[in-house]
Structure formats: structure tokens, C-alpha cells
Amino acid sequence: MPSVAVLYRVSTKKQARKQRRLLENDESLPVQAAVIKEFVARHPDWTVVKEYVEEISAFKFSKDDRDIIQQVIRDAMNGVFDILLVFKSDRLSRRAFEYPMILWTLQQSGVTVISVADGGKVLNMKDQPEKLMRFVEGWQSETESINTSIRVKEAMQKLAEKGVWSGGRPPYGFRLSERRTGPALEIHEPEAAVIKEMVRLYLEEGFGSKRIAAVLNEKGVRTREGRLWTDTRVRQILQNPIIAGLPAYGRTRPGNTPKSRVRKAKGCWTDLSSYTIPRDENGNPRPVPEYQIIPLETWLRLVEKMKQMNSGGAAVRAGAAPSTALLTGFLVCGHCGRTFKSSSGLCRPDRNGVRKRRRVYKCVTHDQIGGGNKICSGQGSYVQHKIDNVFLKELETFLKRVDPEDLLRYVEIKESRAAVEASMLRKTLEAEARKTRKVLDAWTKRLEDYFAAPENSLYSEDYLAARVKEARDKLNRLEAELLSLNQQVAAHARRRTDLAAFARRAAEWWDVFLEAPVEVKKRMLSQIIEKVVVYRDRIEIHYCIDLREFIARTEEKPIRFKVQAAL
Can you give the pLDDT at residue 196? Predict the structure, then answer.
């Protein structure tokens, strides 16, 4: 009796959530299920053992980024099913080269793939003509997706020109409308009141975005996600033209991952000519009354003031000295646990009243969160060269206690021990996985025998299904542990390699370090430094665990795991 699995795919989660409203769509999930159910009914000897529902694009996402298709492939390789039914062939992939590769992998696992909507066509890859046909099908699906993407973009631009919101997560100040007619969004009054207060503070009180964030935080107002306000979040909300009744299309571009979107260059954020908005017959902005939280004239004054303030900051940054920050990426605030950024600040006036600029390390809590000084009890900034000097002095003292030959020998011993331990653990896990795989196969066979002749089985269907699930879950857990172990071994090996490289060059390491440019110094420090914690009165240098342990074992009096130095 062939075991059958079914793969459904809908384009978006929104489509899956609104199945009942999409029954007229011949590719909605309920319609797919009905067609496939009817197809299965024509084969009484088939048994559906598993169903998969995928809710992401098979064009934007590769198979490696699609958890469901990866689960389908794993189950096929484990013999969970013999036949895979798909509504259409493009449910597997909409990429020309990827589609035949998925089919080939399933076929190598002994699985037959059938496209139900194509008249029950078997998607074989047994000979060259069939392989060519599968590639052509993948190419056609990819081309169709590209053309669809172009049509969607054009349609979205036309809708934006009419003042229709282009979709996505509702911006701050709005929520999805429950009305079946009219605009898709409606103003959310509590959030709109916060926006109006932001605008008032900016234009009437002369507050900057960070000070506005501090005011909101002190009042107990939080973002939609329940977080503290930052100056960046305030600016993002105020720069969105939708608060002036202008839903915009084209303010973002694709990011580095299929799901991500990033904002375009800063100059485009408030430039109405750089994206699509509703306009009148003369080309002037035409606000949508239902979306207007503040008047357009007020918003234009707001962004103009933002531009002026930003240009002043840009001029200051342009005249500042290049960053020489050595410890960014290592430096952590001992009071709030957040990192430091490099910046420039003005010194106190000298005898002649002149204030010079200097480089500083700024705690990001103080720098980015409104009212951050009330959240973090540490200093907001530290003079960069003072921190660097204390760190370098302590680092030099520490390195003088390291014997290069002893360290290299120690690293090699530790590496060999770790490799042996990892190998033993890997063998144990692999043996347990093989044993569990046999148990899974045995229970799966009993379940198949039950479906063939229930009256001859010693176990009930529920009991057999529970044993199969228990064995499969254990096997998945063991495979995950093996994967995690391999990743840990790889990370461990990289760390050992770094320490070995340091040990081989320890005699000259300090001299090379002093002469190297800042970026090279940072890479060298990453070999031996874990982090540097800064308090008001001291810093703590946390060395890599192996180096700390080495020093502790080779000295009569073990040192602490962290080295403190007074500021």
C-alpha cells in the first residue's frame, strides 16, 4: 500500500489566514486541498500519511531557506512516504536550476512526485528528454514569477498614485481597518496623539529627537513593541509622509535576505519626488484625508527643520578626525551591559576659551535611548585615548608573562584532547542515531502492516503512530545534536588556530601589534581578547578562556579570570 504525502503552498501567510475569503481563487489552500482529496479518492490503495503546508514564496526563497521543503526532503530520505502530491509543479520551486535538483533528490530517495492540477502528471527525471523537460518547466515558472513581480510593481505604483496603501505592517499611528470598503488603514488615535506630541515638541519647543524620546520615556509612553523610545525611532516616524496623509510607495529597497527591506539613502527619506505618492492633476501632493494626522504644511516644515539640523551634524562629522577606535566591538558597559560606539565630542574650554574636539567611547544606552542616563548608572562617555592607554599598558604587562613555547605546547595538547573528546561523543551520537533509525523503521513497518491488515495487528493505530512519532522525534533530536556538535568543533578549531597563531608569533606579537593599523590591531586582539568591561573607576580585561587557564596553570599563584585596572 503506497504511502502518500501532500505538499500545499500558498503565496503568503495573509492568504492562509483568509482562506474563506479566497475560495474564488483557484489556487487558494481550500481549493488545492479539495482537488487533491478528489485525486486521492480515485486511488483507494493510497494512504495519506503526512501533509505539509508552506506559506512562503518558492521564487524569493531558495530551497535552503525553506524549512518545509527541507522537511519534505528529509522525510523522503527517511522513507516516510512513497508518493508526493503537489497541486502544481511550481509548488516545489520557481527557480530554473533548483526545481530539477529538488526533483532529482526526491527521485533518488525512491519518491514519485505527481502534479495533480496537470492531470496527474508524474514528474520523472529518468532520461535526458525528461530532465530537459523539467528544466524547461522550472525556467517557465521562474520567468512567470519575474513577469508577475514586474506587473505587481506597476500595479502597486498605480495604486499608490491613487492614494491606496501598498500593504505590509501598518505604520505607527495607524491600524488595519475592519471595514470591508474604503481605505485599508485607519488612524489609531492613541498612537496619533503621540505623533502630534512629537511634532509639537519638535516645532514649538525646539526639542531634538533624542530629547523627545526622553520625554516620552519619562512619561511611561512606550513604542508599539513595548520598548523604550530612541532618537532613531522618533525620526523614522516623523519622516514618514503617511502621517501627513501621503501613503508612499518606493521608500525602501530589498535587503540582504528575501524577507528584509531597508530604507533608501537618507536624502530620499523626505524627498517627495523620490517615491510614488498621490498627486493632483497638476502634479502636486494630494493628501488622503482619512490618513492625515497632521497637515501637509506642518510636515513639510518639520522635515525642513530636520534637514537643517542634520546638515549641521554632517558638517561637524565631516570636519572630525578619522576614527582611531581600537576597542569598539570589545568594549562593554559594566553598568548596563550594552556596547560602546566611537564618536567625537568637545572638550572643556581651555584658558583661552577654546574647545577642541576629541574622540570618545559612548555608551549606546546614553547615546540612543531617550533618558538613557536614568537607565544606565555608568558614565555616558569616556575619553578614547585614556581607555586605550590603560588597556594597552595592562595588555603589555600580561603578555610579558606568556612563554611562547609553553603556550604552543599547551594549545596543541588541548586541541588534541578536545578532538578526541568530540570524536568519542560523535561516535556515541551516531551509534544512537543508527539504533533509533532502526527502531523508527521497525515501528513504521508495523504501522504499514496495520494499514494493510488491521485485524492481524497486535497494536492499535494510535499506539503505532505514537511510537513512530516518538522514534522520529528522538532521531531529529540526535541529528540536531550532531549538527550542533560539528558546529562547536568547527568554532573550537578556529579558536585553537587563532591561539596557535598567537603562540607562534608571541615573541614579536607586541612589536607587530604596535606598528599595525587600527583594523589589523582589532583582528589581532580578537585572537586573545573576549571583551573589555568598563566601569566608572576601572576596566576589566577578559581574556580567552584558554589563555587565562594557561597562565593560571603555569604560575605559582593563579591569576583571576579577569584582569582589573584602575581608571
Answer: 96
pLDDT of residue 23: 34
Per the DSSP assignment, residues forming a β-bridge with 532 are 331, 541
Residues 521, 329: contact at Cβ < 8 Å? Answer: no
The rounded Cα 123 to chain-centroid distance in angstroms is 35
Confidence of residue 563 (pLDDT cuts 50, 70, 90): very low
Distance between CA 77 and CA 74 in Å, rounded?
5
Residue 460: count other Cβ atoms within 10 Å of its Cβ.
Answer: 11
Q: Quote the cell numbers at residue 392.
A: 594597552
d(CA 478, CA 188): 49
Burial class, 514, CB count within 10 angstroms (exposed 0-12 / middle 13-18 / buried 19+): exposed
Q: Which residue has the cell 503546508?
A: 53
> In this structure, what C-alpha cell is assigned to residue 522?
582589532
**CATH code given to domain 174-319:** 3.90.1750.20
pLDDT above 70: percentage of residues in the chain:
83
The region of weakest confidence among 191-200, 218-227, 271-280, 283-292 is 271-280
Residue type for 471, please?
Answer: A
Each domain of the chain, given as residue ranges in start order, spans 3-159, 174-319, 404-527
More confident residue, 224 or 156: 224
Cα 215 to the chain's mean position, in Å? 31
Quick one: which H or E segment has residue 398? Answer: helix 384-399
Sequence-separated (6 or more) residues with CB below 8 Å from residue 254: 260, 261, 262
Give the separation between CA 212 and CA 216, rounded to whole angstroms: 6
The radius of gyration computed from the CA coordinates of the chain, to the nearest angstrom, equals 32
Strands laid side by side in the 538-543 sheet:
331-333, 529-534, 538-543, 562-566
- For 297-363, what is the HEC assignment? HHHHHHHHHHHHHHHHHHHHHHHCCCCCCCCCCCEEECCCCCEEEEEEEECCCCCCCCCCEEEEEEE
The whole-chain average pLDDT of the chain stands at 80
Length of the chain: 567
Query: Which residues lie across from 359 on neighbouring strands?
Result: 344
3 state DSSP class of 501: helix
pLDDT at 175: 93
Pick from 272-276, 327-331, 358-362: least confident? 272-276
Count Cβ atoms below 10 Å from residue 428 Cβ, excluding itself.
11
> Which is nearest to 29 in space by CA: 46, 49, 8, 43?
8
Report the candidate in 370, 210, 238, 214 with the shortest Cα–Cα distance to residue 306: 238
Q: Which residues contact 373 (CB under 8 A, 6 or more apart)?
A: 366, 380
When pLDDT is averaged across residues 501-508 and rounded to a whole number, the result is 73
d(CA 127, CA 140): 20
**Measured CA distances, 401 to 398, 450, 505, 521, 526 (Å):** 6, 71, 15, 20, 19
- Residue 150 confidence (pLDDT) above 80: no
Cell of 291: 490618513
* Integer Cα distance of 174 and 60 in angstroms: 28
For residue 506, what is its C-alpha cell? 608571541
CATH code of domain 3-159: 3.40.50.1390
